[in-house]
Amino acid sequence: MGATAEAMESRYVFHVTVRLSASGRVFFDPDTFETRLYRPADPPGEPGWLFFRDNLWRGELSDPDHFRRLADRAIAAEVLEVDYRAFETDEASLAALKDEIRANLDDFRSETVPETVTKYFGSSIEVRADSEGGES
Predict the structure, then answer these.
(1) What would the DSSP string read from start to end of 28-95?
(2) CA 21 to CA 48: how far, in whole Å?
(3) Which pLDDT tens digit goes with each residue over 34-93?
(4) 43: Cα within 13 Å, side-chain hemisphere
(5) pTM for this one?
(6) Angle formed by the axes of helices 113-121 and 91-103, to 10°?
(7) φ and ψ of 57, to 5 deg
(8) 16-36 pLDDT, tens digit each
(9) Residue 15: which H helix or E strand, with range?
(10) What is the mean pLDDT of the chain?
(11) Burial tier of 8 (Cβ tally within 10 Å: 0-12, 13-18, 19+)
C-alpha cells in the first residue's frame, strides 16, 4: 500500500452471552456474562468473503440458532445467545467489498450494489478511519 496507512482488517462484531461451567467443588458467580465476539472478514473475492451473504439478512443473523451452535463450537464456554451487531471496516475495504459485489451481482439476486448491501447488512456497517483499525 505504499507510504499510506495500511487498511484496517474488516470484521464482524457479535454480542454474545456465555455461561461458564465448573466441575467439582468450584463454581462461578455469576456463571453467565456478556462479551463481544469478533470475526475477521475475509478479503473480497477470497474464500469466505460471502460470510455476510450466508449468515446475515437485513442486519440480523439469518439463523440465530445455527450461528449460536457455530459460536459454541468456537468458544471454550457455552454460548447461550449471540446477536450480530456490526460490520466494522474502513473506506478502502468497503469500496473493495462493493466492487466485488458489483462484479457478482447475479449471486445476490440484486440489481444494484446498494440493494445488496442493504439486503444483508441493513444499516450495520460502521466505517472507521484507517488509523482506528488496529487490534482491540
Answers:
(1) -SSSEEEEEEEEEPPPTTSTTTTHHHHHEETTEESSHHHHHHHHHHHSSSEEEEEEEEEEEEEHHHHH
(2) 32
(3) 999 999 999 999 999 999 999 999 999 999 999 999 999 999 899 999 999 999 999 999
(4) 4
(5) 0.85
(6) 110
(7) -150, 115
(8) 999 999 888 999 999 999 999
(9) strand 11-19
(10) 90
(11) buried
Selection from 1, 97, 87, 80 nearest residue 44 by Cα:
97
Bridge partners (DSSP) of residue 89 are 127
Could you tell me the three cell numbers for 38? 469478533
Q: How far is CA 38 from CA 59, 93, 98, 107, 108, in A?
A: 16, 17, 21, 26, 25
* Side chain identity, residue 36: R
Compute the chain's Rg from CA coordinates: 17
Contacts of 94 (CB under 8 A, 6+ apart): 10, 125, 127
Amino acid identity for residue 107 in this structure: D
